[in-house]
Amino acid sequence: MQEFRHFYMKSYNDRLDLISKFSNIDITYAQDNVDFSELNNNLIENYLTDYSLPEGICVNLKIDGKQYVVPMVTEEPSVIAAASNGANLLSSGDGIESIVPNRMLTGQIIIKTDNYNLLYGYVNNHVVDIIKIANAAHPSIIKYGGGAKKIKYSSFR
Predict the structure, then answer these.
(1) Where are any strands of DSSP class E within 21-101?
(2) pTM, rounded to two decimals
(3) pLDDT band at 29 (very low <50, low <70, confident <90, very high)
(4) 61-95: b or e for each residue (b if 16 or more CB lie within 10 Å)?
(5) What tens digit of pLDDT does each residue of 53-80 get?
(6) Spatial contact of 46 and 56, defined as CB atoms under 8 Å apart
(7) Residue 47: left if φ>0, alpha if ψ -120 to 50, beta else—which one?
(8) Is 122 left (phi over 0), alpha (psi -120 to 50) or beta?
(9) Residue 136 · residue 142 · CB < 8 Å
(10) 3-state secondary structure at position 68
């Protein structure tokens, strides 16, 4: 990401222009409606705008072969600089590679009962039936490897 080299040395408008080009986002609104703070520009590296804390960006982050910039809000001067430096070190090779071993989602049912033991016994004795009923409700999801796989339960007493 040669274009972000010495990002912290660029003028405020040059930073916004670079981010606009990199992200394909029109930031005209930001340029017209964001108050630039010289104080916060000197407080953190890669300053962009303010929240109740100054916002900057972490540059040089390479994940799965694609370059990213990550907005960060902090009052600590070294955090963004350290994150950008660490990202740069990681990006010198292949960067960060993400792996999603499986994509499991969790569904939840809340049952209010005064007899948890009875409910616990019923669910325990009917796990296979409950999974079959859940999967029958949406059979097309089974074609894509989805569907109910297991049942977990707990008490919120």
Answers:
(1) 47-50, 54-63, 66-73
(2) 0.45
(3) low
(4) bbeeeebbbeebbeeeeebbbebbeebbeebeeeb
(5) 788 999 989 999 999 999 998 888 799 9
(6) yes
(7) beta
(8) alpha
(9) no
(10) strand
Tokens 């409700």 found at: 137
Long-range contacts: 128-136, Cβ < 8 Å, 24+? 134/107
Angle at 108 between CA 104 and CA 110, to 5 degrees: 165
Cβ atoms 66, 96 nearer than 8 A: no
Q: What are phi and psi of 152, to 5 degrees?
A: -120, 150
β pairing state of 47-50 and 54-63: antiparallel
Amino acid at 104: M
Which ranges of 6-76 would DSSP assign to H, the alpha helix?
Answer: 12-23, 28-33, 38-43
Rounded to whole angstroms, the Cα distance separating 12 from 31 reads 10
Say how far apart CA 18 and CA 94 lie, in whole Å.
Answer: 24
